[in-house]
Write a structure and sequence with these properties.
The complex is a heterodimer of chains A (180) and B (211). Chain A has 180 residues and is an all-alpha fold. Helices cover 73% and strands 0% of the residues of chain A. Chain A has eight helices and no strands. Chain A has helices at residues 3-29, 32-49, 56-82, 87-90, 102-117, 120-130, 135-142, 149-169. Chain A is globular. Chain B is α+β, with helices and mostly antiparallel strands and 211 residues long. A six-stranded mixed β-sheet of chain B has the order 1-4-7-3-12-11. The longest helix of chain B has 34 residues, at 29-62. The radius of gyration of chain B is 33 Å and the shape is elongated. The chains are: A mainly alpha (180), B alpha+beta (211). Chains A and B meet through helix 1, helix 2, helix 5, helix 6 and helix 8 of A and helix 1 and helix 2 of B.
């Protein structure tokens, strides 16, 4: 491929896909700065590849989520070595400001925690489907059989709801719960 | 198949996931391209540096008396040590001169003949060579050579052979012993030898009657 033509395609792909890849990785990890790094690195790799993959969307999320999983493994190791941290701390959630709606903040926390309980593949399925990925694209990106995507996706949605609802039942011990 | 009631409705799920989103960073495509190009350049530079190192390594190895050359010769001296030792025991009367070893010495050299012999002599010469050459020159013997980090041990018990030892003139320190007794030593510029010394610096030590 002509390098100028490739650069043009790359710029178009960046404009069209950067926000989407960032959003998926951000939701997957719950850490915006890390998601930004990973997304940028994904596009760096695409540029260095020198040619567009056959299935750009699937390629991008596949590369990005692989990095995200690697990063999670590394940070899990770091956390084990350093100190015990709660998942929401690890995911880099900003502490709720006094003005913030406490209920909304708790809901966000629950969503993150429920997502974090899902196995990596189910979490990715849920998030990518939400982005409008077709079953075929999901199968390519996550290296699974297309005919099993529907079943796995349904299972992921059920697991997410169950996790969310069970977490709602657990009383949270938070700094905002301190009584006078 | 899962019961749809067990899942959140699609719009509810979308709302929940959207609630945890962070704003996407403002990143220019130009910055990503620059970063990708820089890494390609860095990789090329690393490959070029590796190539230069490889070429200079080969060149250094080809230069006699260079560290790498000596090191490689020493390595190769280690490898044929066993066959050479076996060769020394083989009854090949006309091939006595080929039995021996050559190796690059370290800063200090020790040549230890483990035993006195019934007969035989050791001729020590100084040469313009980076290697120590030790070979059997006399009659059939059954000496075995073992190169050590400090030099060589000659297991010459029962041998009646004579030996030729060529030492690098540049060697700073060397000691040759027969049955533990120093028969030749060099420390800096000072050389002492218990045998017959020629003007050329060659020293012939009779190792059959060293008492």
């Amino acid at each position: 491929m002509d390098s100028r033509a490739f650069e043009g395609e790359f710029r178009a792909a960046f404009a069209a896909r950067f926000p989407e890849v960032f959003r998926v990785v951000d939701r997957y990890l719950g850490d915006a700065s890390l998601a930004a790094d990973i997304t940028q690195e994904t596009f760096v790799r695409l540029y260095r590849r020198g040619a567009m993959p056959d299935d750009l969307r699937a390629w991008l999320v596949s590369v990005a989520l692989n990095q995200a999983r690697d990063e999670q493994r590394r940070s899990a190791r770091r956390i084990r070595l350093l100190r015990r941290r709660t998942p929401e701390e690890h995911m880099g959630d900003a502490p709720p400001s006094p003005e913030e709606d406490v209920l909304a903040a708790e809901r966000r926390l629950l969503v993150r925690r429920a997502l974090a309980t899902l196995p990596p593949r189910e979490r990715a399925l849920l998030l990518l489907r939400e982005e409008g990925y077709s079953y075929r694209e999901l199968a390519v990106a996550l290296e699974i059989v297309e005919s099993s995507v529907g079943t796995l996706l349904a299972r992921a949605k059920v697991a997410f709801r169950r996790a969310y609802e069970s977490l709602q039942l657990i009383p949270e011990k938070r700094s905002t719960d301190v009584k006078p | 198949m899962s019961n749809p009631d067990e899942q959140f409705a699609d719009d509810v799920l979308s709302g929940m996931l959207a609630s945890i989103d962070h704003p996407a960073p403002l990143l220019r495509v130009h910055d990503v391209i620059v970063r990708a190009r820089m890494r390609t350049k860095r990789r090329s530079a690393l490959l070029a540096a590796a190539a230069v190192l490889a070429v200079s390594g080969v060149a250094a190895a080809a230069v006699p008396n260079s560290f790498l050359h000596r090191y490689l010769e020493r390595l190769s001296a280690h490898r044929p040590a066993t066959p050479t030792q076996e060769g020394a025991t083989a009854p090949a009367a006309n091939d006595a001169a080929s039995r021996g070893i050559a190796f690059a010495p370290g800063l200090q050299l020790d040549v230890d003949f483990r035993a006195e012999q019934v007969s035989g002599a050791l001729e020590v010469r100084w040469g313009d060579t980076p290697l120590v050459h030790l070979s059997q020159t006399g009659s059939i013997g059954d000496a075995h050579y073992a190169v050590t980090p400090g030099g060589v041990i000659v297991d010459n018990g029962g041998s009646t052979a004579s030996y030729s030892l060529v030492l690098p003139r540049t060697l700073a320190s060397a000691h040759v012993r027969v049955a533990g007794r120093v028969v030749l030593s060099k420390d800096g510029e000072t050389v002492s030898c218990v045998g017959v010394r020629a003007d050329s610096g060659t020293c012939v030590i009779v190792i059959g009657v060293v008492r």
